[in-house]
Design brief:
The protein has two helices and seven strands, in the order ββββαβαββ. The chain is an alpha+beta fold. Helix 1 crosses helix 2.
């Protein structure tokens, strides 16, 4: 569920995009803090997997099921961390593994892992996903 005034996913033609998703279960963040400080890399990687799963769920709801995803095109993983943090890819791998486990290797998207100062609600990660839709 959106935590503000926006939709969780939107499709148009052969594309669909999720909003930025955080590691929430039943609307509650399950991990809070900055990676490399209060949150370990392993915890953040698992959180990124949960956030990616939430992005897939939002897209499935928008499209009428995961079977409508032709392939994943692009994923951005935002990581709340300090200026000296450099293990962005290790955190983002958790999101990639979730896509791999749920959809298969042919669905892995291109990816960016971006360090930021803070994220909504104190989340350590936020994942957004763009997919091609089967028409």
């Amino acid at each position: 569920m959106p935590q503000g005034e926006y939709v969780a996913a939107r499709s148009h033609g052969s594309l669909a995009m999720s909003a930025g998703m955080t590691p929430r279960v039943d609307g509650e963040l399950v991990v809070v803090g900055r990676v490399g400080e209060e949150v370990t890399i392993d915890e953040a990687s698992r959180a990124a997997g949960l956030a990616a799963g939430n992005a897939l769920a939002a897209l499935a709801a928008e499209l009428g099921g995961l079977h409508r995803i032709d392939t994943c095109l692009r994923m951005t993983v935002y990581i709340a961390c300090g200026a000296d943090f450099t293990s962005h890819s290790a955190v983002a791998d958790g999101a990639s593994v979730e896509i791999l486990n749920r959809l298969g290797i042919g669905y892995l998207p291109s990816r960016a892992a971006v360090g930021v100062t803070s994220l909504p609600g104190g989340s350590p990660v936020e994942v957004e996903l763009t997919v091609a839709v089967r028409v």
